[in-house]
Design a protein that fits this description.
This protein has 86 residues and is mainly alpha-helical. Helices cover 83% and strands 0% of the residues.
Amino acid sequence: MNTRRLDIVWMLLLLANGITWWVGERHAAGPAAVALVMGIAGIKSALVIGEFMALRGVKRVWQAIVGGWLLIVLALIALAYTLGMK
């Protein structure tokens, strides 16, 4: 396990959390703010899955299963938001 890589990922997660907090503190609303927060959530999830759940070094089929699950969850949240806007 490369501790330098984990440190970099951890710092990226901290930065992403800071950006998400900043968006919330500005009381940003609307599709652009939601898209930004959802994009950050997707990136954070992919980093956690790849590095801290040790999925980066496994067979591609497992990466595809977990990655597909992540995309489905994000898509369902985006769909719920879109339907709620109507």
